[in-house]
Write a structure and sequence with these properties.
heterodimer, A: mainly alpha, 10 helices, 0% strand, elongated, B: mainly alpha, two-stranded antiparallel sheet, 20 helices, globular
């Protein structure tokens, strides 16, 4: 229990610190690297809570795709981040105010949350597997391909549309590009490519 | 927890057929390359007609599939037929336009088919997750379609704007859905309704917050005020046939989804959500009436006009009665026919091979293209709600339902707004009939546009003679929600 507590505080402190460094680091590449560190720590916190599926998704999706994309954007595009950050202090009070409003809303909502004893009967009716007996990846897998098969298939179509869209909007057929065509290469005949000539000595071809 | 069964698949046969055919056509198009565009368009539109037949021959009794995620009832069947009609016309109207603009690619039809699939999933959604997945299937395809003319700045801008604002609205919808799930413990519409029936007293604040956010997300998709900002820019920037498609099929689907979500699981809370509907309805009617007055671009004008029409349709919804819902369905069906006809005229507005979009370009059209002038005059009269056109009947049933439900003030605002909007519809008629003649338009490449105009105009004029089939089937469809 103590080790768990210590691990929680270690990960949480690193998470908060790296989150702060994301917005305060001078070099944008460092910011992204701190962001990745923050994601890893958040994933570790999820594992501590027994939500290993969320932890894996966080690493795979956010570290694997989103953060790497950010890294490319930051390194490839010539964006003046100093310029973007100007007026940070000027807008700080408004930002802090909005943050407080959101916090207050969250507190109000959590305060209004139904207590366990009066929780909806529908929630109890859902057959939730016991987390001690079955890991949550296993539990999700069991409903994803059976109960929610329709949604699983439909999500596949959403991804297919995203792929078609990316190709429609960006693929350009340029003229004059020399592509490798294997059938053409294989289909070549000796007579088409090699020409045998008699060359007289001491004259050119 | 149940596995898939054959009866589930049978119930979703039209959707499955559409999805599979879309994928087959995609592969076919990818192998055939640019030459396939024409063939894919023909096969695609025939497929959509076939899907329509499958929808009609399928069950109209309320039945659910996939563990209650998917529902088929008379309401879904009615709306799906409207959507498929809009989709077929979206392909027919596009054929010549895309060729003339040099963007004839087979992906247009594929994206349109998948967007249609998403809409059909939306109107058959019986669960918050299914609702969201259907909505995203539709939206993602529509974003790409808006940017389809990728080499022009305006089209790319339209696509990007639609995408960013659409993502924002999806976020709001998801936030609302998560609140609803948190306070009812269920995502299925039937379970939510059960939970609401079981609880006594006023609904929890968090649940109301959730409903407000879901309504905001859906209002965005129907382009109702105050979530309409994207509409004029997207309608103006997108290629005209895409705009025509946008203004009918997704709008019908979004309004249908709106009605299913609020009337089905939250039917008990009608007094809570009715205020939201009344507010966005009044806002849309007033903005649609006044903001359109100053427009010179006819596509922008149609964007504001469509915002206004959504406002009128929502009047019927605000009534919250079966008559109200059926009046919305009648209104949207008439709107679809009139709007498609109007866009056929706009697509036919080409001069020396280039599309023109100003209202001034229509000047003196009666001297050159008499048939087109008469058709557009009929559509404008219908949209303004002048008897005996179909649009008049649409407004009549909507206002009637509102008055029956005791919303007299709302109906009065609706009548006043439609009087104001008559100004800009009639101005187009005046420009065509009485202004100095401008240069004539090019002859359309084939008769498809003319046929669409003729049939829509005929339906608009003759609807008053035989309105019974539409009104009766809409009434049956609306009863399915109660």
């Amino acid at each position: 229990m103590i080790i768990q507590g210590l691990a929680f505080y270690a990960f949480a402190i690193v998470l908060v610190l790296s989150g702060f460094l994301v917005i305060s680091a001078r070099n944008p590449v460092h910011s992204v690297l701190y962001l990745i560190l923050a994601f890893f720590n958040a994933a570790a916190l999820f594992i501590l809570m027994g939500a290993e599926f969320l932890a894996l998704i966080l690493v795979v999706v956010y570290v694997g795709a989103v953060a790497v994309l950010f890294l490319f954007v930051v390194m490839m595009l010539d964006i003046n981040f100093r310029e973007l950050r100007r007026g940070f202090l000027q807008y700080l009070p408004i930002g802090a105010f909005i943050g407080l409003v959101l916090l207050a809303e969250l507190v109000l909502l959590v305060g209004a949350w139904p207590l366990p004893e009066e929780a909806p009967a529908a929630a109890a009716a859902l057959a939730t597997p016991d987390p001690l007996e079955i890991s949550n990846i296993d539990a999700l897998g069991r409903v994803l391909y059976t109960h929610y098969a329709y949604l699983f298939l439909a999500s596949g179509i959403v991804l297919l549309i995203a792929m078609i869209g990316a190709i429609v909007l960006t693929l350009r057929q340029r003229a004059g590009v020399r592509r490798q065509s294997i059938p053409e290469q294989v289909g070549r005949k000796r007579s088409e490519t090699i020409e045998v000539r008699k060359v007289q000595p001491r004259t050119g071809v | 927890m149940q596995e898939l069964s054959l009866s589930d698949l049978g119930l979703a046969l039209p959707e499955l057929f559409l999805a599979c055919l879309g994928m087959v056509l995609l592969v076919y198009g990818a192998f055939r390359g640019a030459r396939a565009a024409g063939e894919v368009a023909v096969i695609g539109s025939l497929a959509l007609v076939l899907v329509g037949i499958l929808v009609l021959t399928g069950s109209v009794e309320r039945s659910t599939a996939f563990n209650g995620l998917f529902v088929v009832d008379a309401f879904a069947v009615f709306v799906k037929i409207l959507i498929l009609l809009g989709a077929v016309l979206g392909i027919v109207l596009a054929a010549n336009y895309l060729k003339a603009e040099g963007i004839q690619r087979f992906e247009y039809v594929i994206l349109l088919m998948f967007a249609t699939l998403g809409m059909m999933m939306m109107v058959s959604a019986n669960d918050l997750i299914a609702l969201y997945i259907g909505l995203e299937t539709q939206s993602l395809a529509l974003y790409v379609m808006a940017a389809f003319h990728r080499d022009t700045l305006r089209s790319s801008e339209a696509g990007l704007k639609y995408f960013v604002l659409g993502a924002l609205s999806s976020g709001m919808l998801l936030y609302g859905a998560s609140m609803i799930y948190g306070y009812t413990g269920a995502t299925g519409f039937a379970e939510i309704a059960q939970h609401l029936e079981a609880t006594e007293g006023p609904a929890a604040v968090g649940l109301i917050v959730g409903i407000v956010f879901v309504a905001a997300g859906l209002a965005f998709k129907t382009s109702a005020v105050p979530f309409h900002m994207w509409t004029p820019d997207v309608y103006e920037g997108a290629p005209t046939p895409v705009t025509a498609f946008f203004s009918v099929a997704p709008k019908v689907a979004a309004i249908a989804l709106f009605m299913r979500v609020l009337a089905d699981p939250f039917g008990e809370l009608v007094h809570d959500w009715r205020q939201i509907i009344i507010a966005i309805s009044v806002g849309s009617m007033v903005l649609g009436a006044f903001a359109a007055i100053n427009q010179t671009n006819i596509k922008r004008l149609m964007a504001y006009s469509s915002i206004g029409h959504v406002g009128y349709a929502l009047i019927g919804f605000a009534a919250g009665t079966p008559e109200g819902i059926s009046s919305v369905l009648v209104y949207m069906a008439i709107y679809l026919v009139t709007n498609v006809g109007t866009f056929a005229v706009i697509i036919a507005m080409r001069r020396r091979g280039r599309a023109v979009e100003d209202i001034a370009d229509l000047a003196g059209l009666q001297h050159r293209q008499r048939g087109m002038t008469i058709a557009l005059t009929i559509f404008m009269f219908s949209m303004a709600g002048i008897p005996p056109m179909a649009g008049f009947i649409g407004k009549l049933v909507v206002f009637g339902a509102a008055i029956d439900a005791g919303l007299t003030l709302l109906a009065i605002i609706g009548v006043l707004a439609s009087v104001v909007s008559a100004f800009y519809y009639l101005r187009i008629v005046k420009v065509m009939w009485f202004d100095e003649a401008a240069e004539p338009f090019d002859k359309p490449a084939d008769s498809s546009l003319g046929t669409v105009m003729f049939v829509s105009a005929l339906l608009t004029v003759l609807f008053v003679a035989y309105p019974a089939p539409l009104i009766d089937s809409a009434a049956i469809a609306a009863d399915a929600l109660f």
